[in-house]
Write a structure and sequence with these properties.
alpha+beta, three-stranded antiparallel sheet, disordered N terminus
Protein backbone atom coordinates (compact mmCIF):
# COMPACT_ATOMS: atom_id res chain seq x y z
CA UNK A 1 0.00 0.00 0.00
CA UNK A 2 1.35 3.46 -1.00
CA UNK A 3 2.24 5.65 1.95
CA UNK A 4 2.02 9.43 1.99
CA UNK A 5 5.82 9.68 2.03
CA UNK A 6 6.26 7.44 -1.02
CA UNK A 7 3.57 9.39 -2.90
CA UNK A 8 5.53 12.58 -2.23
CA UNK A 9 8.67 10.84 -3.50
CA UNK A 10 6.89 9.92 -6.74
CA UNK A 11 5.63 13.48 -7.16
CA UNK A 12 9.22 14.69 -6.71
CA UNK A 13 10.38 12.30 -9.44
CA UNK A 14 7.74 13.66 -11.84
CA UNK A 15 8.76 17.24 -11.05
CA UNK A 16 12.42 16.52 -11.84
CA UNK A 17 11.64 14.77 -15.13
CA UNK A 18 9.26 17.49 -16.30
CA UNK A 19 11.58 20.38 -15.47
CA UNK A 20 14.74 18.42 -16.45
CA UNK A 21 16.46 20.11 -13.54
CA UNK A 22 16.92 19.39 -9.84
CA UNK A 23 17.27 23.12 -9.17
CA UNK A 24 14.00 24.11 -10.90
CA UNK A 25 12.13 21.14 -9.45
CA UNK A 26 13.35 21.94 -5.94
CA UNK A 27 12.16 25.54 -6.31
CA UNK A 28 8.76 24.37 -7.55
CA UNK A 29 8.41 21.92 -4.66
CA UNK A 30 9.62 24.36 -2.02
CA UNK A 31 12.60 22.30 -0.92
CA UNK A 32 16.37 22.34 -1.32
CA UNK A 33 18.29 20.67 -4.15
CA UNK A 34 20.13 18.44 -1.68
CA UNK A 35 16.88 17.28 -0.06
CA UNK A 36 15.41 16.57 -3.49
CA UNK A 37 18.47 14.53 -4.51
CA UNK A 38 18.13 12.52 -1.30
CA UNK A 39 14.44 11.93 -2.06
CA UNK A 40 15.21 10.58 -5.55
CA UNK A 41 17.99 8.33 -4.23
CA UNK A 42 15.58 6.98 -1.59
CA UNK A 43 12.97 6.26 -4.24
CA UNK A 44 15.49 4.53 -6.50
CA UNK A 45 16.70 2.41 -3.58
CA UNK A 46 13.10 1.52 -2.66
CA UNK A 47 12.27 0.50 -6.26
CA UNK A 48 15.61 -1.21 -6.86
CA UNK A 49 16.40 0.54 -10.15
CA UNK A 50 17.87 3.76 -11.49
CA UNK A 51 15.20 6.23 -12.60
CA UNK A 52 17.20 9.26 -13.74
CA UNK A 53 20.26 9.78 -15.89
CA UNK A 54 22.22 12.82 -14.72
CA UNK A 55 24.94 14.84 -16.43
CA UNK A 56 26.39 18.30 -15.91
CA UNK A 57 23.72 20.04 -18.00
CA UNK A 58 20.48 18.09 -17.80
CA UNK A 59 18.48 15.32 -16.22
CA UNK A 60 16.54 12.70 -18.19
CA UNK A 61 14.67 9.53 -17.28
CA UNK A 62 16.23 6.12 -17.81
CA UNK A 63 14.22 3.46 -19.63
CA UNK A 64 12.76 2.36 -16.29
CA UNK A 65 12.09 5.97 -15.35
CA UNK A 66 10.33 6.64 -18.64
CA UNK A 67 8.09 3.61 -18.15
CA UNK A 68 7.18 4.78 -14.65
CA UNK A 69 6.54 8.33 -15.85
CA UNK A 70 4.07 7.19 -18.54
CA UNK A 71 1.76 5.83 -15.84
CA UNK A 72 2.65 8.10 -12.97
CA UNK A 73 2.17 11.48 -14.71
CA UNK A 74 -1.51 11.00 -15.61
CA UNK A 75 -2.18 9.38 -12.23
CA UNK A 76 -0.87 12.39 -10.31
CA UNK A 77 -2.84 14.74 -12.58
CA UNK A 78 -5.96 12.73 -11.72
CA UNK A 79 -5.20 13.10 -8.01
CA UNK A 80 -4.74 16.86 -8.46
CA UNK A 81 -8.04 17.04 -10.35
CA UNK A 82 -9.82 15.14 -7.58
CA UNK A 83 -8.43 17.43 -4.91
CA UNK A 84 -9.39 20.46 -6.98
CA UNK A 85 -12.91 19.08 -7.33
CA UNK A 86 -13.21 18.74 -3.57
CA UNK A 87 -11.96 22.26 -3.10
CA UNK A 88 -14.35 23.56 -5.75
CA UNK A 89 -17.21 22.23 -3.66
CA UNK A 90 -16.34 24.50 -0.77
CA UNK A 91 -17.77 27.95 -0.29
CA UNK A 92 -14.74 29.16 1.66
CA UNK A 93 -11.57 30.16 -0.18
CA UNK A 94 -8.67 28.17 1.25
CA UNK A 95 -5.49 26.37 0.32
CA UNK A 96 -2.18 27.52 -1.10
CA UNK A 97 -2.00 29.69 -4.21
CA UNK A 98 1.37 29.26 -5.95
CA UNK A 99 2.39 32.01 -8.37
CA UNK A 100 5.57 32.52 -10.40
CA UNK A 101 6.47 36.16 -11.04
CA UNK A 102 9.35 38.51 -11.67
CA UNK A 103 10.17 41.11 -9.05
CA UNK A 104 8.68 43.76 -11.34
CA UNK A 105 5.38 41.90 -11.72
CA UNK A 106 5.28 41.15 -8.01
CA UNK A 107 5.62 44.86 -7.17
CA UNK A 108 3.15 45.97 -9.84
CA UNK A 109 0.44 43.29 -9.62
CA UNK A 110 0.71 41.03 -6.56
CA UNK A 111 1.95 43.22 -3.73
CA UNK A 112 -0.80 45.88 -4.05
CA UNK A 113 -3.61 43.33 -3.65
CA UNK A 114 -2.10 41.22 -0.85
CA UNK A 115 -3.39 43.28 2.13
CA UNK A 116 -7.04 43.11 1.04
CA UNK A 117 -6.77 39.54 -0.30
CA UNK A 118 -5.22 38.03 2.84
CA UNK A 119 -7.67 39.93 5.05
CA UNK A 120 -10.67 38.71 3.04
CA UNK A 121 -9.43 35.10 2.84
CA UNK A 122 -7.65 34.18 6.11
CA UNK A 123 -7.61 30.46 5.21
CA UNK A 124 -5.67 31.07 2.00
CA UNK A 125 -1.88 31.12 1.66
CA UNK A 126 -0.06 32.89 -1.16
CA UNK A 127 3.32 31.50 -2.20
CA UNK A 128 5.31 33.58 -4.72
CA UNK A 129 8.44 32.36 -6.49
CA UNK A 130 10.50 35.19 -7.99
CA UNK A 131 11.96 34.00 -11.27
CA UNK A 132 12.78 35.58 -14.64
CA UNK A 133 12.40 32.56 -16.92
CA UNK A 134 9.08 31.62 -18.46
CA UNK A 135 7.73 28.77 -16.36
CA UNK A 136 5.63 25.79 -17.41
CA UNK A 137 3.11 26.23 -14.62
CA UNK A 138 1.53 22.80 -15.15
CA UNK A 139 4.82 20.92 -14.95
CA UNK A 140 6.11 23.08 -12.10
CA UNK A 141 2.80 22.85 -10.20
CA UNK A 142 1.98 26.56 -10.11
CA UNK A 143 -1.55 27.91 -10.18
CA UNK A 144 -0.60 30.94 -12.27
CA UNK A 145 2.24 33.04 -13.58
CA UNK A 146 2.61 36.77 -14.22
CA UNK A 147 4.98 38.09 -16.86
CA UNK A 148 5.44 40.76 -19.49
CA UNK A 149 4.30 39.84 -22.99
CA UNK A 150 5.05 36.14 -23.39
CA UNK A 151 4.48 33.54 -26.08
CA UNK A 152 2.13 31.33 -24.13
CA UNK A 153 1.19 27.75 -24.88
CA UNK A 154 -2.16 27.16 -26.57
CA UNK A 155 -3.66 25.64 -23.44
CA UNK A 156 -2.93 28.78 -21.40
CA UNK A 157 -5.41 31.55 -20.66
CA UNK A 158 -3.83 35.01 -20.42
CA UNK A 159 -5.41 38.03 -18.76
CA UNK A 160 -3.99 41.52 -19.10
CA UNK A 161 -3.48 42.83 -15.57
CA UNK A 162 -1.76 46.13 -16.16
CA UNK A 163 -1.52 49.06 -18.59
CA UNK A 164 0.66 49.14 -21.68
CA UNK A 165 4.31 49.81 -20.92
CA UNK A 166 7.28 51.45 -22.62
CA UNK A 167 11.00 50.98 -22.38
CA UNK A 168 13.32 53.93 -21.75
CA UNK A 169 16.96 54.55 -22.62
CA UNK A 170 18.51 56.64 -19.84
CA UNK A 171 21.83 58.00 -18.62
CA UNK A 172 23.02 60.57 -16.10
CA UNK A 173 23.77 64.15 -17.19
CA UNK A 174 27.44 63.69 -16.23
CA UNK A 175 27.76 60.56 -18.39
CA UNK A 176 26.24 62.33 -21.39
CA UNK A 177 28.53 65.37 -20.97
CA UNK A 178 31.61 63.24 -21.46
CA UNK A 179 30.18 60.98 -24.20
CA UNK A 180 29.20 61.27 -27.87
CA UNK A 181 25.57 62.13 -28.70
CA UNK A 182 22.89 59.44 -28.87
CA UNK A 183 20.38 60.34 -31.60
CA UNK A 184 19.82 56.90 -33.17
CA UNK A 185 19.77 53.37 -31.69
CA UNK A 186 22.91 52.48 -33.65
CA UNK A 187 24.82 55.13 -31.66
CA UNK A 188 24.52 52.89 -28.60
CA UNK A 189 27.13 50.51 -29.98
CA UNK A 190 29.74 53.20 -29.26
CA UNK A 191 28.66 53.63 -25.63
CA UNK A 192 29.17 51.86 -22.30
CA UNK A 193 25.81 50.16 -21.85
CA UNK A 194 24.39 48.15 -18.95
CA UNK A 195 23.41 44.73 -20.24
CA UNK A 196 20.67 42.34 -19.13
CA UNK A 197 21.27 38.60 -19.14
CA UNK A 198 18.41 36.23 -19.98
CA UNK A 199 19.43 33.46 -17.62
CA UNK A 200 17.05 30.79 -18.95
CA UNK A 201 18.08 31.41 -22.57
CA UNK A 202 21.74 31.85 -21.67
CA UNK A 203 22.01 34.99 -23.81
CA UNK A 204 22.38 38.76 -23.46
CA UNK A 205 19.20 40.67 -24.26
CA UNK A 206 19.27 42.75 -27.45
CA UNK A 207 17.68 46.18 -26.95
CA UNK A 208 14.52 46.51 -29.04
CA UNK A 209 13.50 49.67 -30.91
CA UNK A 210 10.79 50.60 -33.39
CA UNK A 211 9.81 53.74 -35.27
CA UNK A 212 7.64 54.26 -38.35
CA UNK A 213 7.34 50.53 -38.92
CA UNK A 214 11.12 50.02 -38.73
CA UNK A 215 12.21 47.58 -36.02
CA UNK A 216 15.78 47.34 -34.78
CA UNK A 217 17.48 44.96 -32.35
CA UNK A 218 20.71 46.48 -31.06
CA UNK A 219 23.31 44.38 -29.27
CA UNK A 220 25.22 46.68 -26.97
CA UNK A 221 28.37 46.23 -24.91
CA UNK A 222 29.62 47.64 -21.66
CA UNK A 223 31.34 46.95 -18.35
CA UNK A 224 28.31 45.58 -16.50
CA UNK A 225 25.75 42.80 -16.96
CA UNK A 226 22.93 41.94 -14.55
CA UNK A 227 19.91 39.66 -14.42
CA UNK A 228 18.04 41.99 -12.05
CA UNK A 229 16.51 45.26 -13.37
CA UNK A 230 16.82 46.99 -10.00
CA UNK A 231 20.60 46.60 -10.15
CA UNK A 232 20.64 47.94 -13.70
CA UNK A 233 18.80 51.04 -12.51
CA UNK A 234 21.27 51.55 -9.66
CA UNK A 235 24.19 51.28 -12.08
CA UNK A 236 22.62 53.84 -14.42
CA UNK A 237 22.04 56.22 -11.50
CA UNK A 238 25.68 55.77 -10.50
CA UNK A 239 26.70 57.01 -13.95
CA UNK A 240 28.28 53.69 -14.96
CA UNK A 241 26.64 53.54 -18.36
CA UNK A 242 23.47 53.78 -20.43
CA UNK A 243 20.48 51.83 -19.14
CA UNK A 244 17.45 50.30 -20.88
CA UNK A 245 14.60 49.92 -18.41
CA UNK A 246 10.84 50.24 -18.04
CA UNK A 247 9.87 53.90 -18.21
CA UNK A 248 7.70 53.58 -15.10
CA UNK A 249 10.81 52.61 -13.12
CA UNK A 250 12.97 55.49 -14.32
CA UNK A 251 10.22 58.17 -14.42
CA UNK A 252 10.90 59.60 -10.91
CA UNK A 253 14.60 60.03 -11.72
CA UNK A 254 13.88 61.60 -15.10
CA UNK A 255 11.53 64.06 -13.38
CA UNK A 256 14.10 65.11 -10.77
CA UNK A 257 16.90 65.36 -13.33
CA UNK A 258 19.09 62.51 -12.10
CA UNK A 259 18.56 60.72 -15.42
CA UNK A 260 17.97 61.97 -18.95
CA UNK A 261 15.74 59.99 -21.29
CA UNK A 262 16.97 59.32 -24.83
CA UNK A 263 15.46 57.92 -28.04
CA UNK A 264 11.90 58.27 -26.72
CA UNK A 265 10.52 58.21 -30.29
CA UNK A 266 12.09 54.76 -30.76
CA UNK A 267 10.35 53.12 -27.78
CA UNK A 268 6.60 52.76 -28.50
CA UNK A 269 4.16 51.19 -26.01
CA UNK A 270 3.77 47.40 -25.83
CA UNK A 271 1.32 45.11 -23.98
CA UNK A 272 2.03 45.09 -20.27
CA UNK A 273 1.78 42.44 -17.57
CA UNK A 274 -0.35 39.33 -18.10
CA UNK A 275 -1.52 36.70 -15.64
CA UNK A 276 -1.65 33.24 -17.23
CA UNK A 277 -3.05 29.91 -16.07
CA UNK A 278 -3.86 26.53 -17.55
CA UNK A 279 -7.12 25.96 -19.40
CA UNK A 280 -6.82 22.22 -18.81
CA UNK A 281 -7.91 22.40 -15.19
CA UNK A 282 -10.93 23.70 -13.37
CA UNK A 283 -10.13 27.00 -11.73
CA UNK A 284 -9.56 26.63 -8.01
CA UNK A 285 -11.54 29.03 -5.79
CA UNK A 286 -8.35 30.52 -4.36
CA UNK A 287 -7.15 31.41 -7.88
CA UNK A 288 -10.56 32.77 -8.87
CA UNK A 289 -10.58 34.98 -5.77
CA UNK A 290 -7.09 36.27 -6.50
CA UNK A 291 -7.96 37.07 -10.12
CA UNK A 292 -11.03 38.98 -8.95
CA UNK A 293 -8.86 40.95 -6.51
CA UNK A 294 -6.47 41.88 -9.32
CA UNK A 295 -9.33 42.82 -11.64
CA UNK A 296 -10.95 44.87 -8.90
CA UNK A 297 -7.79 46.91 -8.44
CA UNK A 298 -7.50 47.40 -12.21
CA UNK A 299 -11.09 48.67 -12.38
CA UNK A 300 -10.44 51.05 -9.48
CA UNK A 301 -7.36 52.49 -11.21
CA UNK A 302 -9.09 52.90 -14.58
CA UNK A 303 -9.91 56.52 -15.50
CA UNK A 304 -13.61 57.39 -15.37
Amino acid sequence: MMTRASLDDLAAFVAVTRTQSFTRAAAALGTSTSNLSHTIRRLETHLGCRLLQRNSRSVSPTEAGGTLLETLGPALESIDAALDALELGRDRVSGTLRITATRQTYDAVIRPVLPAFTAAHPDATVEVLIDYAYRDIVADRFDAGIRLGEKLEQDMIALKVGPDLRMAVVATPDYLKRSSPITHPSDLTRHRCINYRLVAAGTIYAWEFERGGQALDVRVSGPLTFNEPALMLEAALDGLGVGYLLDKEVAPYVENGRLIRLLADWTPPFPGFHLYYSSRRQMRPVLAAFIEAVRGRSRARRPV
